[in-house]
Amino acid sequence: MLKLEIYIKAAVPALLFLVSCSREHTDVFVPVPLAETAVSDTSSVWHKALSCAGKPSGEGGIAVFGGFAETAVLTERLLSADMFDNIDGKPGQDGLADFAGETVMPVFDMVNAPYSGYFDRMNEDYIREVAVKGFLASVSDRCSSSVFDRSLSAPKPSAKLVLLSSSILAGYGSRDIGYLVEASGIGTGVLTTVHSSVSSIFSKASQSSNIGVWASQDIVSSGVYGSVFNSIRAEYADRKSPEYRDWAETSEIVCLSTEASGTPEERVRAFLGSYIDAEYDTPLSGVIADDLELASSVDSLNAAVDSIMASGAAADLRYKAVMAPGFRFVSPAECIVADSYRWMRKNDRFTHLIAAPMVKGYMTVTSPDVQTRSLDSDGMLPDEIKYGRAQDSGIETFCFTPVGPGCLGDRALERLEALAPETYKGLVYVY
Description:
By secondary structure, the protein is of the alpha/beta class. The chain has helices at residues 33-40, 45-51, 68-80, 117-120, 124-139, 167-184, 193-202, 217-222, 224-239, 242-250, 264-277, 292-295, 298-310, 317-320, 332-346, 383-386, 410-419, 421-428; strands spanning 18-20, 61-66, 103-108, 142-143, 154-155, 159-164, 189-192, 210-215, 253-256, 284-290, 323-330, 358-359, 362-366, 398-402. It folds into 2 domains: 29-192 and 335-428, Rossmann fold, CATH 3.40.50.1860; 197-332, Rossmann fold, CATH 3.40.50. This is Lipoprotein.
């Protein structure tokens, strides 16, 4: 057994529920060592994984990597999506699954998530390494058949499109994955819920408007939306007119962790009230509901928006004043599913098979290199070790295996059935 190296830094101070999401990142980007190894070290197992990527035409699957719940929900949406006409690709239902004939591959990160714990150790670089490993494992055509399989003997589809389902993972790991794709010249697509949702609102925004994010305090405090917003804002400003550029340079993304209960109307008023109380008066073009419960309620939230806009009550005037024309709440899962369809169609990566989409599940498991006494009663890494691991340590603390009988455990299976019933059926019935 190998001794596990622990990476410890001073804890960061507590952060307020409202964070300036538009803060600039002034650092010069340097890929994590694992990304450079995968590109340049031809003897590395990660380089071999990267060499599997970029299969022609429609070969391969759609991988979804991230925390358990987010990955389950996004997988379920891919399996059930009917947002486009499959003949001409225009928005609108046609009664056929948008991803008919495709293999959707959820990769449940049971070992490393939730990712917010790395902030307490100021160990964000390990999040980046996890993202890189998740991408490389997704594009590889092999994985471990079990926790004890070091030879990667189990075949699997190589991903032609990789979706990062967790906001923190996406915010910290997307640049490293982008480096892998660009440096290796592979044709694999990469999309994240953060990028897709920000782009969705930004592309439809009116001048003199901001973008809102309604999320947990962990996501708000992470600053991931600010860094992504800045990069997308720059891209749109470069492509648009001078007037649009002036607006883009002054727009902001405002992240709030507002606790709200009651009717949809009461919840909408609570969020907009928090925005106003934070001394913002620029109208919002839309709000990203980056929370599983909120995201599942966007239809009722938008119905509440319509009700408030139609209201003649004087008390609602303050809320109307901060909603730009076309204001809507959006679900990150809906946004990335739409982008996935567009990417597949644009790049001609559909299988064109007449069949229902199928699911093949994978997961991270704790490596046998980790001493047994380092694990908790569930066989997982305790937080002290989990969040203190050093990147580029040379020690593999987790590996990727198929989801098989007994792998997820009763509690995880119950949650999967509740969150994603079709995904649950697809995984459990193939055991």
